[in-house]
């Protein structure tokens, strides 16, 4: 009798749920997909579950109720196309707009010759914290769940996916979760980042290479000594681009892509010296930076003095009209806001397989120099939702490869082109061979002075 | 019939004679039409152009009706017009005292004039000075600057920007130093050659002030190079030092001097000494020697000179004055050179 009771409890704990779509990953891509599907009148009655391994709901609720005083260090640039889609799925209203910064100018200049290109277009992009995006989408999902009581979106956070198997009878993916439950689903969408288990389950190969660069992020505050329109600055040093992106209230977000050795040196520096290095990196010549890196490697005491001497000399030589060619100097850094992540290029061979679709970083990763990674993922979501709507209207099985292929054929070429362009820009600006440097500076100056080319580039960056 | 054959001949032989008349008439008619049309177009345009400029100014918002102005307004307008009649090309501001900003064509002319003058009359200081400054392109000076910035002593020199004059060096104190010190060697050399550190002309034509300081430093340290190698200030000695400087510092002016100056050396024994003794010395010395621009000369005055030479890797060449004296004596005695 005891034995039977034991078996009875064992039987109730491990349940196998069934659902139409399971989204693995609670990042911006996964949450946007979930809210877009639930927002769509055609798809909103599908049973959808979102599985996230980390703690998602608590921090997002906390962010919504009492956002942190300082800006977080993971910030992205949203293109107008992304924002219009977020407005379309009515999630934008839940974003904390006072923590976003819409800017009109992008200023990119060469690290060796100071050749520059300047884009000036109203609302060319908006800076937004990753957490702000996730929290806004989460609030929208909660709102949608209130209206959709029979089929709410279930978010299973703090739940890791242990294994994904194929069901023997109908080949549907079965996810084994860390809670002991398992979910059988018609369609599995992998929004689970570069090391996507969904992609591995589908047997899709992802090709690319590591850039051997690390992106250092930090939140910094500008000095209040002159006026600048909110501008995205990017200086192409040979070790990698140093980007300062505007946040509200004279704050800025730093993304400094640099070699592993320099990344180690910079991360170990005390915060004051790190700020001085950022100021030096935005203005000084490469030969001077070499010496400063050597000093920084030893954490030399004279580093601050040297930097202030060279910067004062540099600033004293600038003419009036050249002041605006450089960003304001940084005054301070939010304590402990330095972080880093490795940079790589990857593109999956295909985005869709029988019962599996890949969205966002699971499908493609890119260099942050153009700020397009997350926006490509948002474009993926828009396309996938459209394809799912079309398939549902036609009565197709949304998990079949036949139904999903429209998404792959629409997004793959566009993403591939953008990945290729960003990769080539990175390669062109990684050399210091004088022939290439001259050629690229000439080219950049030529483009800067050709209005129609610039307009074309702006339209490609922002309105895709 | 004769007339007919003549006409035939005329037509076959002199057919070209008839044509010009016809074509010149045609071309002259064409040119006439073209000129008439262009005159008509110009006339029409000049008739319409005031309206066009008026329309433009109305669109820009810069339209100022002329006849409703008071005298005051008219005067103000004239003043503004005078201000806006600024010349197209203004000379840029000087970046440091003594700076004379030159346009590129002026620098080119300076180079041409001074190169010719320095070749023919190297004893005249102004040619040498001008040649040095007109050939000191920022590219080479930037290389030198980067070299200085990556060396700690060079960096210190750039920070402190020391200026060498007879007072800053305190020549009296130096002449009282023991004879094996560098300071004493320097002062002895100054006395022997009869020169003073004050004769260095300030840099005028280099635009960036840090690069101008570097060139000034090079000019002022020239005497130190003489004294540490012991070469005299005769033309032969200067050429040898120039070769050494070119190989060590890569300043183009020194290279020009080292390559072209020997062409003007007429005496055969002098030329032999240059090519067989001093140029090989310069090559060997410059290869093994540290970049001399990074030496803070003022601070090592009390160092032992041979120790200094070993530290820097400077080899002392054969005494030029001695060799010249020997050669002169041989010439006087009628021996072959």
UniProtKB/TrEMBL annotation, chain A:
Where is it located?
Mitochondrion inner membrane
Membrane topology qualifier: Peripheral membrane protein
* EC number(s) given by UniProt: 1.14.15.45, 1.14.15.46
Q: Which SUPFAM superfamilies match?
A: FAD/NAD(P)-binding domain (SSF51905)
**GO MF entries:** 2-methoxy-6-polyprenolphenol 4-hydroxylase activity; 4-hydroxy-3-all-trans-polyprenylbenzoate oxygenase activity; FAD binding; oxidoreductase activity, acting on paired donors, with incorporation or reduction of molecular oxygen, reduced flavin or flavoprotein as one donor, and incorporation of one atom of oxygen
**FAD-binding domain residues:** 20-215, 340-389
Reactions catalysed, as given in the entry: a 2-methoxy-6-(all-trans-polyprenyl)phenol + 2 reduced [2Fe-2S]-[ferredoxin] + O2 + 2 H(+) = a 2-methoxy-6-(all-trans-polyprenyl)benzene-1,4-diol + 2 oxidized [2Fe-2S]-[ferredoxin] + H2O; a 4-hydroxy-3-(all-trans-polyprenyl)benzoate + 2 reduced [2Fe-2S]-[ferredoxin] + O2 + 2 H(+) = a 3,4-dihydroxy-5-(all-trans-polyprenyl)benzoate + 2 oxidized [2Fe-2S]-[ferredoxin] + H2O
Q: Indicate yes or no for the key word Oxidoreductase.
A: yes
Q: Which InterPro entries match?
A: FAD-bd, FAD/NAD-bd_sf, Ubi_Hdrlase_CS, UbiH/COQ6, UbiH/COQ6_monooxygenase, UbQ_mOase_COQ6
TM segments?
none
Q: What's the chief localization of this chain?
A: mitochondrion
Superkingdom of this entry's organism? Eukaryota
Cofactor names from the entry are: FAD
Choose one Gene Ontology CC annotation of this protein and give it: extrinsic component of mitochondrial inner membrane
Q: In which pathway does it act?
A: Cofactor biosynthesis; ubiquinone biosynthesis
Q: Which HAMAP family match?
A: COQ6_monooxygenase (MF_03193)
Describe the function of this protein: FAD-dependent monooxygenase required for two non-consecutive steps during ubiquinone biosynthesis. Required for the C5-ring hydroxylation during ubiquinone biosynthesis by catalyzing the hydroxylation of 4-hydroxy-3-(all-trans-polyprenyl)benzoic acid to 3,4-dihydroxy-5-(all-trans-polyprenyl)benzoic acid. Also acts downstream of coq4, for the C1-hydroxylation during ubiquinone biosynthesis by catalyzing the hydroxylation of 2-methoxy-6-(all-trans-polyprenyl)phenol to 2-methoxy-6-(all-trans-polyprenyl)benzene-1,4-diol.
- Family under the similarity heading: Belongs to the UbiH/COQ6 family.
Which NCBIfam families does the entry mention? Ubi-OHases
Q: What's the subunit arrangement here?
A: Component of a multi-subunit COQ enzyme complex, composed of at least COQ3, COQ4, COQ5, COQ6, COQ7 and COQ9.
Q: Which PANTHER family match?
A: UBIQUINONE BIOSYNTHESIS MONOOXYGENASE COQ6, MITOCHONDRIAL (PTHR43876)
Query: What is the name of this protein?
Result: Ubiquinone biosynthesis monooxygenase COQ6, mitochondrial
In which organism is this protein found? Ambrosiozyma monospora
UniProtKB/TrEMBL annotation, chain B:
This one is known as: Unnamed protein product
Q: What is the lineage of its organism?
A: Eukaryota, Fungi, Dikarya, Ascomycota, Saccharomycotina
């Amino acid at each position: 009798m005891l034995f039977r009771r034991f078996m009875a409890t064992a039987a109730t704990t491990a349940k196998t749920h069934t659902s139409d779509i399971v989204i693995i990953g609670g990042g911006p891509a996964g949450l946007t997909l979930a809210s877009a599907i639930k927002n769509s009148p055609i798809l909103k009655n599908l049973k959808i579950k979102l599985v996230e391994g980390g703690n998602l709901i608590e921090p997002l609720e906390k962010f919504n109720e009492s956002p942190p005083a300082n800006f977080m260090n993971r910030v992205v640039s949203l293109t107008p196309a992304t924002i219009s889609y977020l407005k379309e799925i009515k999630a934008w209203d839940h974003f904390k707009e006072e923590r976003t910064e819409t800017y009109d100018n992008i200023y990119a200049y060469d690290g060796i010759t100071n050749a520059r290109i300047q884009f000036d277009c109203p609302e060319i992009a908006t800076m937004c914290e990753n957490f702000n995006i996730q929290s806004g989408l989460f609030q929208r999902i909660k709102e949608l769940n209130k209206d959709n009581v029979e089929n709410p979106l279930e978010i299973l956070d703090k739940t890791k996916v242990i294994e994904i198997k194929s069901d023997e009878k109908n080949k549907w993916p079965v996810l084994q979760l860390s809670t002991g439950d398992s979910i059988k689903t018609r369609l599995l969408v992998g929004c689970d980042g570069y090391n996507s288990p969904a992609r591995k389950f589908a047997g899709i190969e992802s090709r690319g290479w590591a850039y051997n660069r690390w992106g250092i992020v930090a939140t910094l505050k500008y000095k209040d000594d002159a006026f600048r329109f909110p501008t995205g600055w990017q200086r192409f040093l040979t070790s990698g681009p140093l980007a300062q992106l505007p946040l509200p209230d004279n704050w800025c977000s730093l993304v400094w892509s640099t070699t592993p050795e320099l990344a180690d040196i910079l991360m170990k520096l005390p915060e004051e010296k790190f700020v001085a290095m950022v100021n030096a990196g935005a203005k000084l010549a490469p030969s001077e930076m070499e010496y400063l890196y050597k000093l920084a490697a030893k954490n030399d005491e004279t580093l601050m003095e040297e930097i202030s001497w060279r910067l004062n000399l540099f600033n004293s030589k600038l003419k009036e009209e050249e002041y605006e060619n450089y960003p304001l100097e940084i005054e301070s850094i939010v304590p402990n806001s330095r972080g880093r992540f490795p940079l790589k290029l990857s593109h999956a061979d295909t985005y869709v397989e029988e019962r599996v679709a890949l969205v966002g970083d699971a499908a493609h990763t890119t260099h942050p120099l153009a700020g397009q990674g997350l926006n490509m993922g948002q474009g993926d979501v828009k396309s996938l939702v459209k394809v799912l709507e079309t398939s549902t209207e036609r009565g197709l099985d949304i998990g079949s490869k036949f139904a999903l292929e429209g998404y792959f054929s629409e997004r793959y070429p566009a993403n591939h082109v953008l990945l290729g362009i960003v990769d080539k820009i990175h390669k062109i600006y990684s050399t210091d061979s004088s022939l290439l440097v001259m050629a690229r500076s000439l080219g950049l100056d030529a483009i800067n002075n050709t209005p129609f080319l610039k307009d074309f580039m702006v339209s490609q960056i922002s309105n895709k | 019939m004769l007339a007919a054959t003549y006409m035939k001949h005329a037509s076959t032989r002199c057919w070209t004679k008839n044509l010009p008349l016809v074509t010149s008439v045609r071309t002259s008619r064409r040119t006439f039409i073209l000129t008439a049309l262009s005159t008509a177009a110009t006339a029409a345009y000049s008739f319409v152009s005031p309206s066009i400029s008026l329309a433009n100014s109305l669109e820009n918002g810069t339209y100022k009706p002329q006849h409703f102005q008071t005298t005051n307004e008219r005067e103000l307008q004239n003043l503004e017009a005078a201000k806006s009649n600024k010349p197209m090309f203004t000379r840029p501001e000087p970046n440091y005292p003594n700076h004379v900003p030159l346009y590129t064509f002026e620098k080119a002319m300076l180079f041409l004039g001074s190169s010719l003058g320095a070749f023919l009359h190297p004893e005249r200081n102004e040619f040498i000075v001008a040649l040095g400054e007109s050939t000191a392109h920022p590219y080479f000076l930037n290389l030198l600057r980067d070299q200085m910035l990556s060396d700690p002593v060079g960096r210190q020199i750039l920070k402190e920007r020391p200026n060498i004059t007879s007072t800053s060096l305190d020549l009296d104190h130096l002449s009282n130093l023991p004879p094996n010190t560098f300071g004493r060697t320097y002062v002895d050399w100054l006395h022997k050659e009869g020169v003073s550190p004050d004769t260095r002309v300030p840099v005028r034509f280099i635009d960036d002030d840090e690069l101008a300081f570097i060139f000034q430093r090079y000019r002022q340290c020239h005497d130190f190079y003489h004294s540490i190698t012991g070469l005299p200030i005769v033309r032969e000695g200067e050429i040898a030092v120039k070769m050494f400087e070119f190989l060590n510092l890569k300043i183009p002016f020194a290279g020009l001097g080292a390559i072209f100056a020997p062409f003007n050396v007429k005496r055969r024994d002098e030329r032999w000494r240059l090519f067989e003794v001093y140029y090989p010395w310069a090559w060997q010395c410059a290869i093994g020697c540290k970049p001399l621009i990074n030496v803070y000369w003022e601070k090592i005055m009390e160092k032992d000179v041979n120790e200094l030479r070993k530290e820097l890797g400077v080899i002392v060449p054969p005494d030029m004055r001695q060799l010249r004296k020997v050669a002169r004596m041989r010439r006087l005695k009628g021996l072959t050179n």
